[in-house]
Every structure is written in C-alpha cells, then in structure tokens.
Amino acid sequence: MATNGGSEPANDDISKTNLHQGDGYDRKCTFCKIVNKEVATELLYVDEEVTCFRDIKPGAPHHYLVVPTKHVGDCKSLNKQHVPLVEKMVETGKKILQKNNVLDLSDVRFGFHWPPFCSVSHLHLHVLAPASQMGLMSSLFYRLNSYWFVTVSPF
Ligand SMILES: [Zn+2]
Ligand SMILES: [Zn+2]
C-alpha cells in the first residue's frame, strides 16, 4: 500500500488546499499518472494548467475529461481561487469538442461529479457530446443538475 507521505493535506480543510502548494503531484492518483505520462493515454491537450484526455469508459460518442495538470482535489476542495481554473477547464472542453467537429454546443453536457460519486479524487470535468446520444446509464450518471453531477454551462 502506498504510504500517506505525499504533499496532499490529509484532511478536507479547504484553507489548506492551495494550487501553489506542494509539488502538485499525488503518487496514488490515476490522473496524476496520466498527466505525467506514466500510463499510456493519449493526451489531447496539455498546458501547465489543464490537461485533456478521453474517458476510458465513454458515456457518449465524445467523452473527454479535462483535469488540472497539477493535482487538485475533488469539488469539495474547490474555493474561489479555483474559479479561473474551472473556467479554463470549461474553455478547454469547448476547444476539444470543436477540434473533434462537435460544433453544436447546445447538445453537450459539461459537469463535475460530486463526492462520493467520483471514482478519482483528482478534480475532473466531464465533457460529453452529443448529450442526446448518451445511453440510459450514462444519462443517469451524467444527469443534468442532479446532486451527484454538478453541471456547468459551456456558453
Ligand atoms: Zn491527481
Ligand atoms: Zn467523474
């Protein structure tokens, strides 16, 4: 088992969660491994703030994940200083959709899973399109404004 000696605060105290603290890398985190290219996943977009790749279990014909390049905990650890980051995640999601010829942004779904409905604790924005082609299970799992899936508008 991995030890708890990383740079992550061990509790949910949001005052201790700061983007600029620590090395922004959690050894136990799948998404940190993807961002750091420790697992073979095609990265569709990378810069120092955000990284985008395909969801391994797509819930729609297009299903991308946009994550902060540095480890940020789940939605519960978000605070005001993360607003520009979240906006950039949404912007990046839009760009990735456009790159993949999804031009109808009225038929997309953008959102975050609210803990504990999150399989990975690294903050991630789900970008799904077309929303009208999601299967029954995924339309429940990525349901508009449910308490487990907090949607954001791409407009
Ligand atoms: Zn991480
Ligand atoms: Zn999720």
Automatic annotation (TrEMBL):
Motif range (Histidine triad motif) = 122-126
Q: Tell me which residues make up the HIT domain.
A: 30-139
Alphabetical keyword list: Hydrolase, Nucleotide-binding
Please indicate if the UniProt record lists Hydrolase as a keyword: yes
Residues of the active site: 124 (tele-amp-histidine intermediate)
Q: Does the keyword Transport apply?
A: no
**What GO terms are given for molecular function?**
hydrolase activity; nucleotide binding
Q: Which reaction does it catalyse?
A: adenosine 5'-phosphoramidate + H2O = NH4(+) + AMP
| Family designation | Belongs to the HINT family.
Q: Which PANTHER family match?
A: ADENOSINE 5'-MONOPHOSPHORAMIDASE HINT3, APRATAXIN-RELATED
What protein name is recorded for this chain? Answer: Adenosine 5'-monophosphoramidase HINT3
